[in-house]
Amino acid sequence: MPTAVRLSPTSYVVLGMISLRGPSTPYDLKRAVGHSVGYFWHFPHAQLYSEPERLTAAGLLTCETETAGRRRKTYSITPAGTAALESWIAEPSDSHFQMRDPAELKLFFNEVGTPDDVTRLAKGQIERHEERIALYEGMVARFGPEPADNPRLITLELGLEVEYATLRFWRALAAGDLAELRRRRADPS
Predict the structure, then answer these.
(1) CA dist 163 → 121, 137, 160, 183 (Å)
(2) Residues 51 and 11: beta-carbon distance below 8 Å
(3) Residue of 153, 148, 119, 115 lying closest to 136 (CA atoms)
(4) Which of 168, 136, 169, 167 is nearest to 154 (CA)?
(5) pLDDT tens figures, 105-118
């Protein structure tokens, strides 16, 4: 008999991945997350090994275990799991965008360091964000520029907007020109 279980964002990542890609082992999930939601939703990947068991106990997944060899477990979504996922997707999200960026945390405490620390931090962040933009733009080139052709690319467009905005900030900080950034924000034309 399935038991009621509280579902977390990781639960929905597992349910969503299995719904999109079909029956999956935890290793399959780890690889799929690494090439998709892992770019914007960070969590300990060890949860991809424990969460499917919890969801199976709740009746949201089924599990088949190989009888020989490595005895891998392959999970499939149940109708109850699909219903839970669809219900979650349909709910409006009232949470605010969260960014857990270690560079932003360091920047917050910049008074403890030196101005050179801020400059080094900004230059390093410029490189990181340029690299991430190149990666994302490469994905657009590979998968096509039109999100309507591949609905999963809609998230990639959001990721690009965030990366470009973040890059503008770090470049302005490195140039010592946050005032210009504010001016452009006030008059985007």
Answers:
(1) 16, 11, 5, 20
(2) yes
(3) 153
(4) 136
(5) 899 899 898 889 99
Q: Are residues 165 and 99 in contact, defined by beta-carbon separation less than 8 angstroms? A: no
- Cβ contacts of 17-24, under 8 Å, gap ≥ 24: 18/61, 18/75, 18/76, 18/77, 18/81, 19/77, 19/81, 19/82, 19/85, 20/152, 22/76, 23/64, 23/74, 23/75, 23/76, 24/74, 24/75
Q: Where are the beta strands (DSSP E) in the chain?
A: 61-65, 73-77
**Distance of alpha carbon 115 from its chain centroid, rounded?**
32
Whose tokens are 């999963």? That residue is 152
Q: Which residues pair with 73 in a beta bridge?
A: 65
Residue 143 CB neighbour total at 10 angstroms: 14
pLDDT of 81 above 90: yes
Question: Which pTM was predicted?
Answer: 0.75
pLDDT category, 1, cuts 50, 70, 90? Answer: very low
Cα separation, 173 vs 18, whole angstroms: 42
Which DSSP category does 24 fall into? B
The residue written with tokens 């690299």 in the block is 131
Predicted pLDDT of residue 147 = 66
CA separation for the pair 159, 172 (Å, rounded): 20
